[in-house]
Each structure stands twice: as C-alpha cells, then as structure tokens.
C-alpha cells in the first residue's frame, strides 16, 4: 500500500527546505562577514605599519645639506618652489655637462600686465658642488651679506665650473614672446655689441622663435664656462640633447646678470640661492 503525503507532512518538508536554505544563506553571510572582517583586520594591520615604514625610509634617504642629491625615488629628491608648486630635482645631469649639478635655490618670475602680476615661470639654479672651493672668502657669511655682495656672484660666474638655470613654464607661451622678454633684459646689458655677440643673439633667437612653449616645458640655460653656454628645451622630462650653443662672453655674462645682478628679474630666486649658498658655506 503506497504512502500518501498529507498536507501537514508536505508543510513540514517545505518548512525544512526553507530552513535549510536560510541556514545556507546565513552561513554564506557569516562567511562573507568573516572574510570582510579578515580583510579589514589585514588593512588595519598594514595601515598601522605604514607610518613606521615611511619613517624608516625617510631616515635612510634624508640628507643633512639640501642642495646635495638624495636617493632616486624618495620624497627627499625634490624641492618645491612654494609659490608655483613646481618641483625641482635636488641633483641632475644634463646633456653637454660632464658632472652632476646640485640645486642651490629656486624662485619664480612674475610679469606685470597692466597692474596685475602674472606668474610666467619658476626657476631653479644648479651648480657643480666644487663651487664651494672657489668661495672660501665668503665662508660663514649670512644670506643677507651674500645677496648684497655682487662680487660673490661675479666669482660664481667666472668660475670655470658648470652651472645651469632651469626654467619651468607655468603657463603657455609662444617662443617669440619668451625670447622677446629675454632679449629685452639681455640687450641693454651689452653696451656695444660685437659681431660675435650679434651672432650669439641670433642663435639664441632662432632657438625659440616658431616654437610653442606649453605649460610644463623645461628650458635649461647652462653656462659651461664664462665664454660659452648651451640651451636645452624639453616638453617631456629632462632634455636628452643640446638645442643651441652660445659663444659670446658678453651674452653669457649679460644673461647671468639678468638673474643674479643688482636688479634680478626674479628677486625670489636670488634670495633663495643666497640662502642656499649661506648653508653651503656655513
């Protein structure tokens, strides 16, 4: 005789089925919660460990004197120009240079348009670290004394050591406009231009004219010695080649005076470099 399922037994089976499914769902939720809790615990552990890691990293990579280079990839490798937020490497090697150069200071260039000051670029000044040996006469002098003493900057220019000015544009500028502004500062400083000076200025001009200079473009004006300098331009990281060579003592001297003479176009740059030199010579 067959067994006939009663409505009651069917209800029990249905209830058991539902209970089993609920149990599985709860187990799944519990498992998920456990996994999430485990992940949260792991994250908390990693997060709590991170500051210690950074402290160790900073300790290993820090340097006592900021113009010197530090390890690649560390936060210590850069100095930030505070007004423009432009980063400058503390040490770099440029095409055409035989040695690494160290950052001495940074500032920015502001151009007055009507009555509004417009920031055009940030600038950092680099020099061969051996420059210290030529400046012993200023050892122990304050940054204020160094800034006021034009003979110190004359000594830096005359030293047969590589030094470079890195310009980082903070707005789009066409090449002709950039050169016109530079020429406007250089030309009055050359009282009686010679043919060699005119040729050098022409080379300088042709390097910039017709070239769009986008925000972020790097321009390096590098003095190899008092009589010669090179120009390198790049819109994609550090330059890999020299764009022009300028052979004229009058032009190279005038350009140096534009930034480090008694009326610098970027007072903040000269102040920062003077502070860097005071630290170097302390």
Structure, described:
- With 282 residues, the chain is an alpha+beta fold.
- It has a single domain, classed as Chalcone isomerase.
- 43% of the residues lie in helices and 23% in strands.
- A hairpin with an 8-residue loop joins strand 3 (91-92) and strand 4 (101-113).
- The longest helix is centred in the N-terminal third of the chain and has 55 residues, at 7-61.
- It comes from Papaver somniferum.
- Belongs to the chalcone isomerase family.
- One of its GO terms (biological process) is fatty acid metabolic process.
Outline of the structure:
One of its GO terms (molecular function) is fatty acid binding. The protein has 282 residues and is of the alpha+beta class. It is built from 7 helices and 11 strands.
* Radius of gyration (Å): 32 Å
- What form results from the Cα inertia axes? globular
| Oligomerization state | single chain
Q: What's the number of extended β-strand segments?
A: 11
Largest sheet: 7 strands, antiparallel
Strand content: 15-25%
- Annotation field: number of helices: 7
The averaged pLDDT comes out at 80
CATH topology: Chalcone isomerase
CATH architecture: 3-Layer(bba) Sandwich
Give, in spatial order, the strands making up the sheet with the most strands.
Answer: 3-4-5-6-9-10-11
Low-confidence spans: 1-74
SSE-based structural type: alpha+beta
Domains counted in the coordinates: how many?
1
Helical amount among residues, as a percent range? 40-55%
């Amino acid at each position: 005789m067959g067994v006939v399922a009663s409505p009651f037994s069917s209800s029990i089976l249905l209830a058991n089925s539902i209970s089993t499914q609920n149990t599985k769902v709860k187990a799944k939720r519990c498992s998920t919660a456990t996994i999430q809790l485990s992940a949260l615990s792991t994250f908390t552990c990693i997060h709590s460990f991170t500051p210690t890691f950074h402290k160790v990293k900073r300790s290993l990579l820090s340097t006592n004197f900021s113009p010197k280079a530090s390890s690649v990839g560390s936060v210590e490798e850069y100095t930030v120009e505070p007004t423009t937020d432009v980063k400058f490497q503390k040490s770099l090697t440029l095409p055409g240079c035989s040695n690494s150069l160290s950052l001495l200071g940074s500032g920015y260039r502001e151009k007055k348009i009507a009555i509004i000051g417009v920031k055009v670029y940030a600038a950092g000044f680099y020099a061969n670290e051996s420059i210290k040996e030529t400046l012993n006469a200023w050892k122990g002098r304050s940054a204020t004394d160094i800034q006021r003493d034009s003979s110190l900057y004359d000594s830096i220019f005359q030293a047969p050591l590589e030094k470079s000015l890195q310009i980082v544009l903070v707005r789009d500028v066409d090449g002709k406009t950039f050169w016109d502004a530079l020429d406007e500062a250089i030309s009055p400083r050359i009282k009686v231009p010679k043919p060699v000076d005119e040729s050098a200025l022409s080379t300088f001009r042709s390097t910039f004219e017709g070239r769009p200079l986008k925000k972020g473009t790097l321009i390096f004006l590098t003095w190899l010695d008092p009589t010669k300098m090179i120009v390198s331009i790049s819109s994609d990281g550090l330059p890999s080649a020299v764009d022009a060579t300028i052979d004229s003592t009058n032009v190279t001297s005038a350009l140096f005076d534009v930034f480090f003479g008694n009326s610098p176009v970027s007072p903040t740059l000269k102040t920062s470099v003077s502070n860097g030199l005071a630290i170097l010579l302390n």
